[in-house]
Amino acid sequence: MQEGVVLKSTGSWYIVQGDEKDPIACRIRGRIRLDESKSTNPVAVGDKVLFEVDPQTGEGVINKICDRKNYIIRRSTNLSRQTQILAANIDQAVLLVTINFPVTTYVFVDRFLATCEAYNIPVILLFNKTDRYNIKQQKHLAEFRNIYEQIGYTTMEISAKTQDSLDDVENLLKNRTTLIAGHSGVGKSTLINRLEPGLDLKTNPISEIHQTGRHTTTFAEMHPFSFGGYLIDTPGIRGFGLAMIEKEELYHFFTEIFKISSECQFHNCMHINEPHCAVKKGVEDGLISPSRYNSYVSIYLNKDEKYR
Ligand code: GDP
Ligand code: ZN
Fold first, then answer.
1. What would the pLDDT profile of 200-226 be if each residue is shown by its tens digit?
2. Phi, psi for residue 201 in degrees, rounded to 5
3. For residue range 69-100, what is the model confidence (pLDDT) as tens digits?
4. Which of 44, 213, 271, 275 could form a Cys-Cys staple with 85, CB 3.0–4.6 A?
5. Helices of type H across the chain
6. Any ligand 1 atom below 6 A from CB of 98
7. Which residues touch 171 (CB under 8 Å, ≥6 apart)?
8. Of 137, 140, 171, residue with least CA distance to 154
9. Cβ atoms 169, 124 nearer than 8 A
10. Where would I find the beta strands (DSSP E) of the chain?
11. 183 close to ligand 1 (CB < 6 Angstrom)
12. Is ligand 1 within 6 A of the CB of residue 185?
């Protein structure tokens, strides 16, 4: 029996990287019971597993799935209560942000951050295309970064296209399992191709399709970096959204709002228009950024039944 990590799943076969140079195609031993019984797929990309290889066929059998540090899920279909695990054991997410070309909005960033907070995944905000910004946009970039630095998020800025060395980004990704996300056109492929020439990302075209809300049967995939670590490519990235967060708990995932909320007069305060709300006072006093509060309110108000 040896230990390995699942790089890819096709539904019935799992590609597992063990100690050998080449990954091995495995099936699952009978029915492996999981705590996540509502999930449609018992083994996910990123899962650490114990498996053995049949010396005759060269095929493997997965005997055990190790406990997951975290995982991201989406509903199998829009109406279903069943969930599909997209990926597991994610060390960090890198959200690629552009001030322009295309515009990334605060609410887009805040939705992503809240989702990752809920899944317990640290996020780094990587601002790209710094070579393209005029003075006004540079100023906006500085303000944008500052909002998130204040809350405690790590931010960096790069030009994936023109920068000579991307060593800082490489160091960030080295020996970790990373999910990279961002609007189409922000430069994900450009960045990945510079870090690992030849790596073919699937994130983009399908993420556009997902905006219409229909899930396809595409699976996530994990690609090794030659400098160590893995990149998780999730074609269904848009599908993991905020669907799993209850409206009443949304503020728990805005860390600075959650911290101050213990001072609200009502323990069930939603920070919308309740009296003596410490969050609203925090915005007035400059402790909470107005853009963060606006994002919270707009996500809260839009999070009606159809998202549940
Ligand atoms: P993706 O959709 O996120 O994968 O974005 P791409 O990597 O395909 O990039 C979209 C466009 O932005 C391409 O034309 C890239 O050449 C360009 N691009 C990417 N990074 C930069 C950058 O740092 N500076 C500039 N000026 N253009 C960039
Ligand atoms: Zn409140």
1. 666 544 444 444 444 444 678 899 999
2. -85, 140
3. 999 887 666 666 677 788 999 999 999 999 99
4. 44
5. 106-119, 135-151, 167-173, 188-195, 203-210, 255-261, 278-284, 290-302
6. no
7. none
8. 171
9. no
10. 2-9, 14-17, 24-28, 48-53, 60-65, 71-75, 83-88, 92-97, 123-127, 154-157, 177-181, 221-224, 230-233
11. no
12. yes
Percent of the chain that is helix, strand, coil (3-state, to 5): 30, 25, 45
Cβ(131) to ligand 1 under 6 A?
Answer: yes
Token pair in block for residue 119? 């899944």
φ, ψ (nearest 5 deg) of residue 232:
-95, 125
Pick the atom of ligand 1 nearest to 159's CA: 23
**What is the pTM for the complete model shown?**
0.89
Which residues are CB-neighbours of 113 under 8 A, at least 6 positions away? 95, 123, 153, 253, 254
Residue 118 has what pLDDT? 92
CB distance 34 to 42 below 8 Å: yes
Residue from 190, 200, 206, 208 to probe ligand 1 pocket by mutation (most atoms less than 8 Å from CB): 190
- Quote the ligand 2 centre to 276 CA distance (angstroms): 7
Residue 186 CA: nearest ligand 1 atom is: 3
